[in-house]
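The methods section describes the discrete structure representation at length, but only in general terms. What matters is that the chain and its backbone geometry are given together, residue for residue. For illustration, here is how one protein appears when written out as sequence plus structure tokens:
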Amino acid sequence: MSKFTSTKPLAGIKVIELSNMITCSLAAMTLSAQGAEIIKIEPPVLGDKMRPLGTQKNGVSGFFHNCNRGKRSLAIDLKSEAGVRAVKALSSNADILLHNYRPGVMDKLGLGSHELRDLNKKLIYVAVSGFGTKGPMTNLPAFDHVIQGMAGFTDLQSSNEGSYDFIKTFICDKVTAYTVSQAATAALLARTNTGIGQHIDISMLHACLSFMWPDGMMHRTLKDEDRFEMSPGSDYFQTINYSDGGVAVAPLTNEHWEALLPMLGYPELIGTPLYESVASRMTNMKDVLEVLKSPRDDIGVDRAMEILIEADVPCSPCIKRDEIETVEQIKAIGALETYVTEAMGRLTAPTPPVLFEGKSTSQAEPSPLLGEHGKEILDEIGWKETEIEKLLESGDMVITKL
């Protein structure tokens, strides 16, 4: 058992993860980065659906790796008697179980919350769903894009009335994942006082509505008729585009605009009614954005950055994804690390973003091959060699090695 340290606060915590795709996988990897031991239980034929998606080596994709570093994998059929028995045995000695099966599926398998928590009163059982456990859409399948639509993200991204656009990253999956990891650690804290675990339900829809609301729905929060209406914060986002690249800029104060307007080639607008206050700008964002979108002078990114930094305007250059690894600021904070694994060779991935005691940590670990650790995991719960061999022969379990 790993020893607790201030930089590994979850050392000694055992997590069972039953999931496909991002939500529970990324949540569990976040817990792993903080010291928890993760056993990932996957279907024995194809495993987690992330495994083959995108650029890959030896059957493991970069996508899968980015959500599964530092875990051990058991590939066993949950529809088999042996699979159910294995999960029960592992759960009886675990601290947290995470799954993202549709509501009712785990109960049908004999692995529901009540059953497993009867075996282990200290177990924290986290069930992640797409749309929640009530309502007409409870049993429908949900992926990131589906939740983006229902939680208002596609409308948020739209630039034209009546059109809808996706945020081009799995934002709903990842928001839910971080919500799951925070809830699990909060439940661990509660357990120190109560001595028992609990059941937690988290829906992607609810998590993402909560995430979007502070700024994306600021204009729909106050309901009284005497409210003073201003544009939502989402209307304030705009890049300044030049022939050699773009600048991300967040001008808020009058002083910011006194520097920004001449830079854009509109010095005559300084002090005019539209630009004289935050309130006037935020109630006329359509006109303000037209100026940001249309600089008269193509001064280039470097010169624009000099002017903006001198005026203390929040800004940064817009970095192409293929250039992120070369950025000095990203290097300075140690946000990425490059290392070598046996299965995937040389690769680059983020370091844990939380600096406990202000210290950087590493998660330069491999992600597991499908069922790679099956034998050792079952050995640890006392299964005999003959039982494991029978499982492998039947196809109810798979062990993959290089």
In short: The chain has a mean pLDDT of 93. The domain at 237-323 is CATH 3.30.1540.10 (formyl-coa transferase, domain 3). Residues 217 and 232 are 7 Å apart (CA to CA). The two ends are 27 Å apart (CA to CA).
